[in-house]
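Entry 14. Two folds queued back to back today. First construct below, sequence then structure tokens.
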Amino acid sequence: CELPATDHVAGIQHLQRAGSTLDQQLILGSWRHVPANVVHHRSHRSNRERRSERDIEEESDPDECLGGSGSSSSGMSGSDSSTDRPSSAGKWTPQCCLGFEGWLREHMGSRNKFLSIVAFVIIDAGRREAEEWNGPDVDVNPMSISVVVHFLTVAVGLMLCWAIDGRAMVGTVLNFHCLWRWAWIAGLMLAQFYLQAVGVHMGLNASWVDMLSYTNVPIALLVSSLIFKRKYGKLEVLAVAMLTLGIGAYIVLRVRCMEKGCMEMYSSMDSKKSGGVVIVLLSTVVGILAWTLSERIVKGFSPGVLASRGNHRAEVIRVMVVHLAFCQLLFQGINWVAHSTMHKGSILGGTSERPPWFGFWKLRSYLMVLAYVLHMFLTCYIIKHFSTVTWVLTQVVASLLQTSISDPVLHRYDFSKRAMQSFMIAPTIVLSALIFQTGRLNVERIQRRLGVRPPRTEQASLPERLHGLLPSNLRRVMRCRTSDESTLQGSSSPSSSGTDLELNVPQGATQAKARKSGMADPMALAKSRMLDVTRLAAKYASVIMYILSQACRENFSQKAQSSQVIVPQSLNVATAFAGLVVAAGSTWWQHGWQGVRQACNPYKVAKFLLPAAFFAVSAFFGSMAFAMGASAAAKDAAGRIYTPAAALLSRWILGKFYMWLEWLALVILTLSCTVFGLLDTSGSGAASLMGITCALLSGLTSAINSLVMERLMRDETDSYIVQSVRLNIGSLLFNGLLLFVMGWIGDAEHPPRPDLAFWNYRPMSWECSQAGSCAADGAFLFAGPEPSNAAELACACGRGVFVGWGASWVVYAALASGVVYSWVTGLVVKQFSSIYRSVADGIMLLVLYFALTPLMDQTPFPIQDMAKLCVVLMVPLSGTTFSYAAWEMQQAIETAEGAGACTGDDDGARGGGAMGEDSSRACGADGGEGCECGNDVRATSSSAGAGASGGAKVDSRGLDSRAVAPAAARAAGSAGAGGAMGGA
């Protein structure tokens, strides 16, 4: 570390510039614009750091490829630095759009970056439309178009270099040290197209190539994480998974209408060759690898470029375009000349029937060339200022824009038959991309406003992230900076570890536990571990029971209530009666007869009549959905309307708020459930529109019921089983009344449904119900000629509430699984958080769709309907995204409350940031007496709500709730979440 002072300062400045760039691109493109020292410092940030967090500017780092030392004021980077400045952009913004302008600055960096994304989407959509319009034109040599595109790109790039750099461009462009690196990348891009052509040559049709090419989103995520050591959170992984599945469903719908006129529900698998699929996937990996390596070079992270001479190492866009296009022109030109002179076919150029040289160009050929040239420049801009992942996501959005406009306008591929499904899937893809790009940034802004720093496991320190990316002569500077970090940052900075705050566990307790475990006997340690495993297995056994009981309940109920042998509503009556018996027995076991009399208090029972009515109506609509032909998976997917309905209604019933990230997940959940119902309805006929409508009404009434119950239980202090007795009494009453309602609906239908009314005759067995029906006088009538085994069937008719219950064991299995599910649900809610229950619900849908439905319905497996397969996988992912976003915000608020109430010094008292002065005074400016750390100081949801509304509720520890809730509401509102945390 013994370096001259000037070299030391220069090295520190270079590391600061590299760290600023890494904070913008190394983690997630424009995803996390957090300075590196935010990890270690929550307060006492300098004005320069606050300005850099608010006004994110691009560093001007021209490479030696710009020539020698290079002036930072010249070139496109210098101009971008001035035009991308957010503070100057607001000068031209209308007064009505200042809020949107601020949102763009926070999530995209500047308005110019946002406009560049919009321009790229439009140009890429135009390029795709030109490709589709041009089609397989046999009069044009496709290689000539590629050669002309690269030639014009080189020419335009050279003109820009001459206009901006003048004579200095000679040393910049004619730099073979940079050129040979781009030659390798151009070779990878040529290999991508060659492998794709080989896949087509092996028998894979163009439709499958188009579908497989959209796997570039998860591939780009994986390659970027490996090359740049980018760390993605659960929100990003969930968003990419939803986006990939959404674009897969969208493309499958379009492809099958392209090939079969939308008449075939199942996608054709005959044309798929396993070798061709592998080759096309390999081509996608090679292409993503090429562009990711380009990103590493253009951002100055390439070890070879870093080790080269010169102080400036970040490539400039115009030079990158010239080098890359020239190398591609060289490779494509050789193949083009060979194809045209030898008059032989090739995989890239097509058969020998293709015309040599240029062929006969048309207007659309010239338009395609123009679109490709503009696309090349904008691609390099997106790669430099954002990331390869952002570039891929933008291409997906451009593809949606092109197909959503051109297909309905030009009436392509029977768009009218898939219009509703396509228009519902497209927003889910765009919203998933938005969650990926800005979701985590929104969460972290709220965390910083609350004074909660991100965990060290999610964002490494600057020296750790720069390790291996810097040349050896700068690693010494990095070590010097690490050793002098406290001097550069000031002596007033808080500790960088923050372990106690993040983990909420005192160090002394952890060390004592470690010493105790180290002194324990090995046999005792083994027994302790075995006991922990047993407890863990017992804990998660309830989750397994929850998943299996819910899946069995849905499937068995569908089988029993759609059989036309039993009265569908009779199963709800029996379930309510069985639940009442179990709840009353449990109450007597725990509280004796006094508890049973308390549970049957008429006044208390009357208070539970309203939620009991909603509960019975929800079960009634579920039975009607099955009776109308809805499958178990379709009914469950449509019933997921429960989550967005509960979120909307809780705004007025309970006064709760949700941040925009949760709303996006709810919109995706709603649309994916609706699309699944439409696909299940229009395809194999497993469900009807009336059945899906009843399933939606069941989910809606269930959401209302849960909110009414939540509001009712705020004033109730009795145990869960006592309240369950009261709820089941009312449920049994209303389910009995709905027996008559279902019968009246069955008689009023056209044609009539006598199986819905318990006073009508019906066959006594499932075999007889398929062979004929019952007359009004109770005589059985065969549908056709009397079969030879009529005597063996011995078909008879009967009527009553529980008629037909002895026909099959499925009815009793549905009853048992319903009772078990109702009790296991309470156990899961008690032991786990809402995010675990959401994941369990998603797993239940997968078990139902992939296991029980094929097993019970004898449907083919694996599932051949690729569109419905992708959509059904999106449903649990969107629900998990909503729950995880809510869980993160809850954790941030709880940590902020604990940090504001439990500080040991003046710095810690101010560490809460947004907590305000009231919170500091509650504990004392110097962390005075009466302030206890850990979980002892906490604010309940009711106190937080009272604080948000101006109440003055104070908990037993002396923490004024008004200091917490308004601060949380301000933090959530400043990050675009409205008043999300005010009611949390």
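Second construct, same run, same settings:
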Amino acid sequence: MTADQSVLKIYSGRTYVHTTMVRHQGTALAFAMDDQRRIVYAVLDLSSYDEKRGELDAAYWSENPAELAFPDEIVKVGYAVAPATAMPRVKKGGRVEAGAEEELGTAEEDRFLSTTARLSAAAPFQVLSDGTHLVVLRQAIGAAHPDAVFSLSGGGSSGDTSRGDLTVDLAGVRVPVAADTLLCDRFLLVGGLLKPVTEVRFRRSRHRTEPESAKDSLGASDMDGKPFHEPTRELAFVRNLTEGRFTAVLTPTSVEGRQRWQVFAYNGVTKRVDSFNVEQGEDGLFNTQGTRYWTSPDPVYRGSVFEREPGTCPFTGKDLVPAAPENPLAETALQFNGTAGFVDLGVAEKLKFQGRAYTVEAWVKPAAAGGTVVSRWAGSGQGGFQLKISNAGRVILEHSTGTALTSVQAIPAGTYAHIAASFNGSVATLHINGILSISAALGYTADGTASLRIGSAQSGGSVFNGVIDEVRIWNRARTQKELAEERGYRLVGNEPGLIAYYRLDEGSGTRVYDQSDSAVHGTLSGTGASWVTSQASVSDHPGVRRDSFTLDGREVVSGLAASLYYQQEEATAGYQEVAKPAKRQARVLLACATRPSGNTAAEAQIATVDFGVGVDGRLAAVPDVLALTEIGRPVEQNVDQVTAQERRVTALEQEATTIVQEIAALNQEKASLTTEVATGSVRAGDSTDPYRWAFWIQGDHASGYFRQSLLDPSASERAYWFTIGNGTDVRLALWRIPGAASRHGNPMVAFVDLDSNYEVLDTGHPDVWPTVVYLWPHNLNNLPASAKWYVKGSLTGKFSLQNVSNDLWFDGLHTNRTEDRAETSALVKAGLAIDLTKIARLAALPGLIEQRTLDLTAKQAQIVLARDELARLTNGLLGAADLVLPMPHLAIDTAGLSSAGALLGFARTASTPYLMDSAAGRLVLYFRGANGQFFAAYLDTAAVRGCSSLPGAG
């Protein structure tokens, strides 16, 4: 055995075609699909050390891989009322299915063909951990596959296409149980083995919510003792999968323990990447309905009614209605000027009604003139329909039979409203804001050759004047309840009967994208239409949010990979106050191999898109078309460019050094002035100059505050009190009053508190006793007499002071210990004050230091960018230690979430990439090159907030 082989664990006996790994509860598991579409797994058990096995991990893998046991039932996610569909029981040695009453022993049953394992497509699959369960996601086979099974009219399923009880659709096509969709199964890791998850159902009906009768009871097994295992769940909203091109992650929310499912899937029909964000239910699975709230239909009572379930309003007796969304997310819309401009959808054969049932709905904000909203119209008698708004604001539906249906209500000009026209084949109905307006019989002839348009008619109609948003076209008549409940939500795009869906959120350009599987995209024509911000009351669906995008000029050629990560920012924490990386915003990175559209000979490269994650677990919205910039090792650069960049790096470093020196000098000056203010500076004659005196007074309090007193010993019955802060020291300085004359050679001064914004001692505050002295804000240039004092004497000897507003002299500063609200007060120091200019300088220094610190942070960020650019210019030889390539910014959505993306010119591969977090705190991208070698690229998760210095007002 070679050294390399000693670290490998090799399983033989099968041909493995797809592999994946996952870490679950600290244990690593490896999964593989063989060429027979069977999925097996092995467990790396490091829970105990075995001296015979040694220390290498390879010795602790499972001795042999075990086959994953899938359930024998399947259920569609979002259809809780429908029971699980049982898979056919197939006898070993062939494809013969057992009868309904026939019993098969374990040895007689083909467990692969008798379970949902037969539905696994030969394509890459994914396994992820939610912390409790291991979740296996796999693509379902197509309807034409030999192992496909079809629904039976009496319940159950069968792979026998010759049966006469197979369910068929309106076109007579057999309905498969699952085809080209996403399948989900959960398992528990118990003792090194993966076990299916059991659930509780009614024992007789075998249904989760519907009992067979009043005698039915809940249990973990049926009446025959067969345990209830969780069925395979089909995510039917993830459609048209091909070659396993999907990936999923769980995104966090601001609510502890709450997450959302995020699924990316390449749609083989629309050739676009679908992004599904689904609420995670309380059981950890998929809550496609979402958490909804209900309120009164009457606006008067909506503030008093808020329910989690549908019901009846206690005030009006009417059914509750869905509560309006708090955060509308309509994004953009199209505004038409009433003279020119429309969205041309072409002939759109897929969207022709031909007299059959349909529904057309949209959000509109008409101007006074109104006009055509949606139409296939070339004039009366030419076939088709026209939905428009009259000059009076009434909604009108016309078929080419010469008659029209006009709403009773009118929409006020300049007001957003939801309008809907439905037709069941004979009767047409108009709804405004989910409320029935009018219904009547209306004939319909063939559609004719007119093109389908938004905003005008091909002929015989007027161009719309106003705003149009959220256009939806269905091939069935929708009910009033459906319209009322869903008009305020974005659709997923694959709802039953939805054949076209135009969100009109492109925001720019002339292309309008259909978000349904019909992929009937439109073109904005004429000069009379422009993109505007929509104010329509439309928000994300509470359960499922679907966005769809494509990469400009490129097509996906591999599976998808996605990973959740957190940006890291330096933050000071702990007793040592050391800056360490801390998790900040959650983000999701998506990666896949792409090549230029239509060019199969071109070399494939990995494309990446980076999404911000909101507090609700939803991803940043991105444009419908993403134009990715290619990044990679640059071509040879001009020597002058390199030299110029080197000089820039040097200059920035010198500027940063200068700022550091300035900050150090300012801190030193601040420390010196602080000491000087506290101790004063002695000069000749200071002791006899009252303008240089300062007093430190200290007090203790018992009743929430205390008072100090200045007493005249010759008139002790009169005390002057002044109040200061709780338990703090007070420094009072004698400041010269500008322009004040002395009396008998005694200068006039003001007592200024150096610690309270330089407030002045005042005896004449109108709200207090005449004997109380308060610190009060005054201007030295306009002091009242009650705040002016005469002083005489020497600091080292006896000194006295007198208030200008009375005749009493104070021969000293004393303590009054008899006041019931003061315990202790004392003159603790009499010193010398510093110059006013120095005090002002000391007050300004903290702001200067803070500003220069911000300048240093900004300068350091500039240095990092300059070094990265130098590394790029010199192919990584100079500047930063590694060649760092910035991820170009793409967009910021209405919620403030950012997205970025790039085409990695250095990552050339047509294979599916692999993303995982590394021990160094970075996100690593593994990919296989053209020659079979494995490469790695790292996404640095460290983030530095941008900052800029703005001049203040002074």
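Quick look at the second one. The first strand starts at residue 16 and ends at 24. The helical segments are 480-486, 639-679, 836-873.
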